């Protein structure tokens, strides 16, 4: 079984300091949280960026500032910028961080009702456009899927040449409007991807650690972090992203699974060296 790749989603676009005071907004806070996760065993930092007041932005200059600062203290970490942005952003606005030529970036494979009147829109043409841009820029997409139909979309667009093999999926489970985070749902998604594909599981809220355990046992990979969950245990706020990563690393050790370094993660994911 391959070593376990741990991704830390350190801030997201929606979670606030009101939810957990340790949620990072500033460049310095993002560096602190990325370093805590890296030191605990994360080889990938999944990155959204904020303005200092906490509002989400896809500004490539802000991304560059944060990415450069993280690489100063974690020189070999894989930084995976999000192209999800925030509800209402244009395609090109969302794609700005891919202009910085990261090794990986997210590619959302469908539209989702986030709750209330918020709709996270990803039309088929949007997904094709993002796929083309990532191929053009030499970026490996992490295919974010919130339901089974999004896997089907990714496979269909792969056959049409918009997404290259081997594919890497991120099962985001437990989001309002998407698939739940029960074992049944995990098995359903897991059995729906190609044999040569890899996957990461991101469980939202109370699903984070139960799904992490399933992925560790199955040979998949795990994402944790403040974007998905701000608690280390029921009712107890996590002190840092590093504390969440540490918990997964302990779980993996108890199950006999070693943790991948960034170099090993690059090999597993087929990233250019």
Automatic annotation (TrEMBL):
Keyword field: Metal-binding, Transferase, Zinc
Q: Does the keyword Metal-binding apply?
A: yes
InterPro entries associated with the record: Aldolase_TIM, BKACE
Keyword Zinc recorded = yes
Q: What cofactors does the UniProt entry give for this protein?
A: Zn(2+)
MF (Gene Ontology): 3-keto-5-aminohexanoate cleavage activity; metal ion binding
Name recorded for this polypeptide: 3-keto-5-aminohexanoate cleavage enzyme
């Amino acid at each position: 079984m391959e070593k376990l790749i741990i991704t830390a989603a350190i801030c997201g676009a929606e979670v606030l300091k009101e939810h957990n005071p340790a949620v990072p907004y500033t460049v310095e806070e993002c560096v602190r949280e990325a370093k805590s996760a890296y030191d605990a065993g994360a080889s990938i930092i999944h990155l959204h960026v904020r303005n200092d007041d906490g509002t989400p932005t896809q500004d490539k200059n802000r991304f560059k500032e944060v990415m450069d600062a993280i690489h100063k203290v974690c020189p070999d970490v894989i930084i995976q910028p999000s192209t999800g942005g925030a509800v209402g952003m244009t395609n090109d606005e969302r794609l700005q961080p891919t202009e910085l030529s990261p090794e990986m970036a997210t590619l959302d494979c469908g539209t989702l009702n986030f709750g209330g009147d918020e709709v996270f829109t990803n039309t088929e043409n949007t997904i094709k456009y993002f796929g083309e841009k990532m191929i053009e820029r030499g970026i490996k997409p992490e295919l974010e899927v919130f339901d089974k139909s999004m896997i089907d979309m990714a496979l269909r667009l792969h056959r049409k040449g918009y997404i290259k093999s081997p594919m890497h999926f991120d099962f985001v489970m437990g989001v309002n409007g998407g698939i739940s985070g029960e074992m049944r749902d995990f098995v359903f998604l897991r059995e729906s991807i190609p044999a040569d594909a890899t996957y990461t599981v991101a469980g939202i809220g109370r699903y984070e650690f139960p799904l992490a355990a399933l992925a560790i046992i199955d040979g998949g990979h795990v994402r944790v972090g403040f974007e998905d969950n701000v608690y280390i245990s029921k009712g107890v706020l996590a002190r840092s992203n590093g504390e969440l990563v540490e918990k997964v690393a302990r779980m993996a050790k108890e199950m006999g699974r070693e943790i991948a370094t960034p170099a090993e993660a690059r090999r597993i994911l087929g990233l250019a060296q």
